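WARN no homologs supplied; continuing
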Amino acid sequence: MAHIARARYASLIGTLADPEAMQDPVRAGDAKAKFAGLSAEEREVILGDVREIAAVRQNAIANAEEIGAALANVMPTRPEFQGLRDVYVKSLAPFLATKELRRAEAATTLRFAIAAGVGLFVVVLILVNTFPNAPDGSYEDKKRLVLYGAGALGFGGYAYFRHRLYKIVNVARDRMVKAITNALSLRYERDPKSSAVFDQLRDWSVFPSHTRTRFQDRFAGDWRGAHFDFNEIHLEERRGSGRSRRWVTVFRGYCVDITFERTLFGQTVLVPKNVGSGFLSGFPRQMKKRNLAPVGVAASAFHDRFNCYANDQVEAHYILDPAFLERLIAMETAIHGKGLRAVFEGNSVKVAIECEDMFEIKGSERLDNPQIMARTLHELGSIFDLVDFVLKRELDAPKATKSFGRLKSA
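OK structure emitted
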C-alpha cells in the first residue's frame, strides 16, 4: 500500500515537501485539497514521506559549509561562476538531496524489475520446453508466441520503470540548469522546436544528409559584448528497407553562433577532410555556387584534418592562423568532440562539433553529488571559453583591419 501511494501521489508529496511551492497560494491550495480527499492510510504514508524529505532537506542546509567546500574544490575557477556556489548551497543542494531519495528508490525498483523480467523469461522458457511437441509440430508456433509474450512483458516493465527513474533525474537536471542560467541571465529552452544557427549552417551543406532533426538544450544570451546562441542537435537518416528499415544517427553534437560588433569582409568555411567525399556530396556544389575557393591551412598538423574555403584569401589566412585553430581544437578535445566545422561570415562565427550529449545526468549517479554541478559548469564554461577567445581574437586584431580581416565597406 505504501509503495502504491508513494508512486501514485509523487507529485503531491513533492509539492507538500517543497517550501517554495507551498508559498504559492494556488499550488498550496490544490495540494491541501487533494490531501484532504485521501483516505487516512494514504495520508499517513504521504505525511511520512514529507517528514523524511524535510529531514533530508534540513540535513543539507545544516551541512551547507561542507557541501559548499566540496563544490568549490571541483567547480571551474571562472569569476562569473563563483556566485553559483551560494545558489547551489542554499537552493539546489536541499532540493537535490530530496530528489536523491526518490532516485535511489526508483533505481532499486528498476534493478528489481530487470531481475524479475529475466527470471520470468527463464522460467517461461523452461516450462515451454518441458511440454512435448505434437507430432505435426503444431505446438512450435504457440511456444514461440508465449516466449515473445514473456519477452515483451519483461521489456515493457523495464521501459516503464526506467522512464520513472529518468523522470526524476530529468526534473533534477532541469532545476539545476535553470538555476544556473537564471543566475547568469541566460535564456534556456529544454526542447526548442527550431534552431536558427542550425538552419544557417545547413544552408552551407556542412552536415550529412538527414531526414529527421531533433533539438535540445538551447542557451542564448549576451556575454562580454557578444551574443551567442547554442543548441544541441541530433540528426538521423532513415536507411534500409522492409524489416531492416531503421533510423541511423549521422550527426550528434552542438552548434553555436557567436555574434560580435564588427563585420568580416568575406566568407570563410572550415570543415573536416571527409566533408564532400561522398556522404556530403552537396558541399562542393555549395562552395562553387558561392564562389569560395580552397585555401591552404598554414600548419601542416591542421592541414591533414581540415579543408578550408574562402572568397577572401588574405582574410582567411588571418582568421585561420595556428593559434586560433589550436584553440578550436582544444575546445573540441575538452568536450571529447570531433568533426569540427566553422563558418565565418558577416559579424558572426558559427561552429558545429560532434560530441555526446552535454548537460545530462545518468540514472546511476547520485543527484546530491556536487560533481554533477561542477561538470555542468565545465560544459557551459567550454562555450564561454570559445566566446571569450573569439572576442579576444577580434579585439587583438590590428587597428588597420578593425576585425578578423578588413572592415567591410559601407
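The longest helix spans residues 84-130.
OK
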